[in-house]
Amino acid sequence: MSLTALADALGSSRLVTDPDVMDAYTRDEAHLATPGRPLAVLIADSAEDVVAAMKWATAHRVPVVPRGAGSGLAGGATAIDGCLVVSTAAMRTIVELNAADQLAVVQAGVVNADLDGAAAEHGLMYAPDPSSYQISTIGGNIATNAGGLRCVKYGVTRDSVLGLEVVLADGRILRTGHRTVKGVAGYDLTGLLVGSEGTLGIVTSATVRLRPRPPREPATIVGSFGSLRAAADAVAAVVRAGIGPSLLELIDRATLAAIDEWKRIGLEPGTEAMLIAQADGPDADEAATAIERHFTEAGADFVAVSRDPAESAQLLEIRRLAYPAAERLGQCLVEDVGVPRSRLPEMVESIEEISRRHAVTVMTVAHAGDGNVHPTFVFDRLADGSVPDAVWTAADEVFRRALDLGGTLTGEHGVGVLKRRWMALEVGEAGLDIHHAVKAAFDPLGLMNPGKGF
Amino acid sequence: MSLTALADALGSSRLVTDPDVMDAYTRDEAHLATPGRPLAVLIADSAEDVVAAMKWATAHRVPVVPRGAGSGLAGGATAIDGCLVVSTAAMRTIVELNAADQLAVVQAGVVNADLDGAAAEHGLMYAPDPSSYQISTIGGNIATNAGGLRCVKYGVTRDSVLGLEVVLADGRILRTGHRTVKGVAGYDLTGLLVGSEGTLGIVTSATVRLRPRPPREPATIVGSFGSLRAAADAVAAVVRAGIGPSLLELIDRATLAAIDEWKRIGLEPGTEAMLIAQADGPDADEAATAIERHFTEAGADFVAVSRDPAESAQLLEIRRLAYPAAERLGQCLVEDVGVPRSRLPEMVESIEEISRRHAVTVMTVAHAGDGNVHPTFVFDRLADGSVPDAVWTAADEVFRRALDLGGTLTGEHGVGVLKRRWMALEVGEAGLDIHHAVKAAFDPLGLMNPGKGF
Q1: Chain A interface disruption, residue of B54, B159, B181, most A CBs within 10 A
Q2: Which residues form the FAD-binding PCMH-type domain (chains A, B) (predicted)?
């Protein structure tokens, strides 16, 4: 295994072997995953160098762990012993921004917010906005099929990816998709690669769809409710009415209490849940009025509508504080189940019941308009550094409950290493077999991110 | 090869071997494709019987050609010698229509319009509306990833499919996807199967997304233009402005002339193109006014806006007459290229130039808002029944031009048998290799619809 041969084959990309430097490249934000020790880390700056790395890895049978910014929550970028880590985070060029065709061609390391900012200069936006949008890369967003707040209206990452440039395990370059909004020549390999968590190839570049930016600031509607059920009813009413909010978030009492304790947001006693919605587009005012009415009719104790950008930003900030507020209280396992939208009340109530029964603190926020629920398990590690059994037992029950309700283990974070053992429950035996066969079709030697996803 | 063994294994499905009856099941609407002679036709009425058929086919190495209503335009349902044709068109049950979760579970043979009609009773719609919507099945729409008029706003079939039940080549049942709007557990097998033209398995049931039905009739805007370029400029302006029409169709002079000759629509001399747009939703009036203004500013000779349902239907009828008007003039090859939206004028002008140079009549309509162009080649067969060389030569040039402009061979019809020989041009050698490997992952014996797609 000559790293020298790899170093010689590279252009200007950096090959790191210093253990202290490598350490930062061995993990993502899934703190419960235990990383192995890589052979080396490649900080790639071109597709050609990724090609060289994969040819070398194939020749020497070295497993490869691709990564973007490392903001993933499921351990998809966790290094394994003896692997080559390939980071595309330094490939930050926006190659083309085409306003007429409302698309951009970007290298994998372009940060989500940077692309959205560049699009804004042309009156456009890059719609997918995971909470990590200020640091996460388009390549990482594609690997996990990242969601976000505004995907309730504009769809997930997959809905914004038109085509990909991918380096395959054997070093060949595969180009998928096109620059058109429609196209059915052959299998949808673009869609297959989005969300494949680095197990099929390494995305080096993407052609993504941009959308017209709403012409003005959205209207923001906030409502507080005396019961979770009332808040969930309000969500169902908004969805049923076809209003199409651009954001519809639920925050539970435990999360609100943690934020209030920290930032003093003036939480009223008796508030069990808060909803924050936004409406953009030409009918934003009409939509905001309708959402306000649905909140009131569902029994909100308090509803307010703001059309002031500064005030809207303050209201959204409450939502963004949910995770840091949880982190103040202990170790966090951020979960990510999804259920059909009508089952949201049952899911949230089940989470509360499971939390009580196992005496595990769980704080829940939800992309309620999508039925995507993030229960965060908050706990202290045991003396030996391990996770209390009750945490995984409670998480197991949450996963099974989501599946029983017709839902999914993961709405937007991915399976990574943390959720592999539940995969057969969701996709079934035939589904797992097909996953293995598809994986072998792309990567017959099993070198691409082994041990991740399924 | 004992058909008796198959017949014995079936429940109430019909097995047809009468050559006269079988004939209707050997072809679709791709009249240039030459069908072979099947061994038998299975008119399935349950997934269990499709399972039995695939187990039998695998045991006896019999190739299988799946089909829905047979309205395809690329020959994806063309029978081959010695095959078993499996029709799912008789599986017409809407298993569930869930208004709260805005989804339906349907058997593969449910007709598109029947599903949309059932959804309408709940204030919902099934958005994908291929021109064949009154006869084509959801299973067939899924196999081809069908588009349609309103997909400029609501997306193609793939964007409305949440999950599938598929019978694999070996007779196992694969269930993909979920009942949630988001989900990233494992590979997007649902998306991979949509548009796979029956080469990976047979769809027996689907969970599809329904959307809120716009609360009232759309506004319709029609404009006539003295040049194709002006019409294309109007399209670009509407797209750029982010208006989001629910329909935006272009009809060229040759098509208008054929319709006028037949139905006397009062075509003005000098009209080179017509645009028909619709706007729905709460801001329909505002959008219609904006579209009218963009048409005028781009140089329309005439613009009219109608909010009257009967008049709107009449205007749309002009668009629907395009294909029957062409069929009156001779044999038709309906093509289906897609280009980035800004390249629409170049594509349409290239088609006119190619038509003139090869002296082949071409009549063009386009889902202009998507850059999806349907040039219909109209010709007389030669004395021996064959297609004049000039037709395929001209079509070849149209395909290559679309690819040169960053486009695709097929926006919504599929590759079938008619476009296979151009596939390598679009997907490349690595892409073809991956197609074959993915195919083998699902269907190692190569029994599923051999000779189709790639």
Answers
A1: B181
A2: 34-213
Number of domains composing chain B: 3
Residues of chain B neighbouring A99 (CB-CB closer than 8 A): 240
For residues B381-393, give the mean pLDDT.
93
pLDDT digits (tens, 9 = 90+) for B243-253: 889 999 999 99
Nearest to A207 by CA among A106, A110, A109, A93: A106
Residue A271, classed as helix, strand or coil, is coil
Q: Is B421 on the interface with A (CB under 8 A)?
A: no
CATH number for the domain that contains residue A193:
3.30.465.10
Count of CB atoms situated within 10 Å of the CB of B152: 26
Query: B209 — contact with chain A (CB < 8 Å)?
Result: no
* DSSP-derived 3-state class of residue B149: coil
| Residues B60, B100 within the same domain | no
* Chain A partners within 8 Å of B151 (Cβ): 182
How much is the pLDDT for B215? 78
Helix (H, G, I), strand (E, B) or coil at B155: coil
Q: Does any domain span residue B435?
A: no
| Residue B238: CATH number of its domain | 3.40.462.10
Q: Per residue in A189-209, is it b (16+ CB within 10 Å) or e — as a string?
A: bbbbbbbbbbbbbbbbbbbbb
What crossing angle do the helices spanning A389-404 and A344-358 adopt, rounded to 10°? 160
Assembly ipTM: 0.96
**In angstroms, what CA-CA distances link A174 with A31, A48, B92, B405?**
33, 13, 40, 20
Residue B327 structure tokens: 């069929």
Range of the domain at A344: 219-405
The C-alpha of B303 sits at a distance from chain A's nearest C-alpha, in angstroms, of: 23
Going by the DSSP 8-state scheme, the letter that residue A253 receives in this structure is: H
| Residue at B392 is within a domain | yes
Report the C-alpha gap between B176 and B191 in whole angstroms: 9
What is the Cα–Cα distance from B311 to B282, expressed in whole angstroms?
Answer: 20
User: A23: Cβ–Cβ under 8 A, 6 or more apart, which residues?
Assistant: none
Q: Between chains, do A184 and B372 touch, taking CB under 8 Å as contact? A: no
Q: Read off the pLDDT of residues A221-275 as tens digits, 9 standing for 90 and up.
A: 999 999 988 998 999 899 888 888 999 999 999 999 999 999 999 999 999 999 9
Query: What's the Cα-to-Cα distance from B147 to each of A139, A140, A352, B407, rounded to whole Å?
Result: 29, 30, 43, 16
Q: Distance (Å) from the C-alpha of residue A104 to the closest C-alpha of chain B?
A: 12
